[in-house]
Amino acid sequence: MGHKDALDREEMIDFVMSCWDDEAGAFGAHPDHDAHIHSTLSAIQILVTHDALDRIDIPRVVKCVFAGDSFGEIDTRFTYIAVNALSLLGQLHVLDGEPKERTVNYIVRCRNFDGGFGSIIGAESHAGQVFVCVAALAILDRMDVVDIETLGWWLCERQLPNGGLNGRPEKLEDVCYSFWVLSAMSILDKIPWIDADQLSQFILSAQDLEGGGIADRPGDMVDVFHTHFGVAGLSLLGYPGLVDLDPVYCMPAHVIEARGLRKPWKALERRQA
Amino acid sequence: MHGVRRVRQSQQALEAKKLKEKAKIEEYLALTNDVISRRKNKDLSQDALRLTSRLLQVNPEFYTIWNYRRTIFLDGIFPNSSPEEINTYISDDLSSTMTALKAHPKVYWIWNHRRWCLENTPHGPGSETEGDPNGWKKTNWDKELYVVEKMLDIDPRNFHAWNYRRYVLASMAVKRSEKSELAYTSRKIEANISNFSAWHQRSKERASLLFPPNDVEVNDVCSGEDPELLKSEISAIQELLDEQPDSKCA
User: Fold this and answer.
1) Taking a C-beta distance cutoff of 8 angstroms, is the pair B63, B113 a contact?
2) Preferred mutation among A170, A222, A229 to probe B, highest tally of B CBs within 10 A
3) Domain edges within chain A
4) Partner residue opposite A33 with nearest CB, options B64, B196, B249
5) Nearest-CA distance B145 → chain A (Å)
6) In chain A, which residues have their Cβ closer than 8 Å to the Cβ of B249?
7) Which first-to-last residue range defines the signal peptide (chain A) (predicted)?
8) Residues of chain B contacting A220 with CB distance shorter than 8 Å
9) What are phi and psi for residue A214, nearest 5 degrees?
10) Å from B181 to nearest chain A CA?
11) Which residue of chain A is at minimal alpha-carbon distance from B164?
12) B212 touches B203 (CB < 8 A)
């Protein structure tokens, strides 16, 4: 929304650094929590946004991101997080060769007949999982393994008569899918396949006009999660007054461009208010 | 928040609610501080274990505490326990996480902890020479399929439960036949033709029946080698479509 300074920069960076888990060499969700790859990416994203990457020990983080968590969860979300984090840290080259092949192969094995991707091998296609897989493949320059037409069709079928998007066939609409679906569609250059006006209207109707914020659907309690993904969706739809969002990294496009990391994608033209 | 309706409350009602929550929050924070400081001091005692149970019951998203709980078991309690005792701890965690799952069916950490329990069930009660050395394992894995079916009865689209189902089926000591899994998906689809999760599971099972494993790309069902199987599937889908032409799944 172009208000980066609404939160105090130093205070935020200090909080992020207080979540550092020195034993593991990565970030936890809160001071004294175990390091996790999730919160490590969030920390890196905040530090990149505020141009403060010099605060972290990059080689240690790379080592930890590479190792995964100690109780061994597997999920394509973690594949994306690792690829994204390495890319933001300028360390994607550590995957060169066999590790990159292995990563791409795993994602390919999570691909289903409908063109979508699941969280693990055998899992049902899910829009959130489609985003992480497509974005990881975009960062790795391996979009050749995506069946773009089939997946584009599956993604545009996520739009329901009320304009909102769901995450799987025969499920209810939810504002957060505006981002998961649209991000993947913009990487595939298929956003024109959905009705943008109807979707914009749906996202706007889920706002709390008195207290501010956006909910999962009209009339529900707002939260930061849905507000973030609602605004992200509106940005990709060219809503007036918002800054451009990079759908691959889910960060402001100018931040990604400044680091020379922009991949091919196409959002709708920004409209005038 | 997912599915929580927004209600406008008066200033007075909001104050009263805040006051009520304040006591709860204070209790939670005191418990959290206690557990976190025990963890820092490497406390691997029974007391610490009990406190993690209480904290995880209030906040099952607190992954650090799940990790701590497993560390207490692995480094503090199991080395001084008999296999019977270990099996009891594991069984207790399997039942308490079942209760937790009913309240929070989409919390990844609870599902993960169950996997850990199953994978850490000790050998016994028999030995290599007498009785069944895998008796406890078999009991736990068999029960697990029942648990996951319960969870899918409550929410037939819960993808955590479906993923977990595939994991249980692949890990069971005595494998179920693919045909019995097809029968399960048939029942789910008959109950609701719009259950795409069951259709998806069926696509995976059908593919593995149509092709010998490791032979062909699993996704290429259409070029199958068993035309009869494929024909019967297509005519079954046609029948369902005649009944409910609007379904997006079939």
Assistant:
1) no
2) A170
3) 9-73
4) B64
5) 17
6) 169-170
7) none
8) 1-6
9) -130, 140
10) 14
11) A123
12) no
* Chain B residue at shortest CA distance from A71: B67
Q: Which of A9, A21, A86, A104 is nearest to A52 (CA)?
A: A9
Contact residues on chain A for B248, CB-CB shorter than 8 A: 157, 169-170
Our CA-based measurement puts residue A115 at a distance from the nearest CA of chain B, in whole angstroms, of 10
Q: Report the candidate in B114, B80, B116 with the shortest Cα–Cα distance to residue B97.
A: B114
Q: A124 vs B116: CB contact, 8 Å cut-off? A: no
Q: Where do we find the tokens 């550590």?
A: A94
The sign of the CA dihedral B152, B154, B157, B160 is: negative
At A268, list the tokens. Answer: 């709708």
Q: Report CB contact under 8 Å: B163, A113.
A: no
Encoded amino acid at A97, one letter: G
Contact at CB, A215 and B166, closer than 8 angstroms = no
Helix (H, G, I), strand (E, B) or coil at A215: strand
| List of residues 6+ apart from B124 with CB closer than 8 A | B83, B84, B87, B133, B135, B136
B118-174 confidence digits (pLDDT tens): 999 999 898 878 878 889 998 999 899 999 999 999 999 999 999 999 999 988 877
Q: pLDDT tens digits, residue range B4-28?
A: 888 888 888 889 889 989 999 999 9
Rounded distance, CA B121 to CA B135, Å? 10
Average pLDDT, chain A: 94
Amino acid (one-letter) located at A155: L
- Give SS3 for B226: coil
Range list of H helices, A3-139: 9-18, 37-49, 58-67, 76-88, 98-109, 127-139
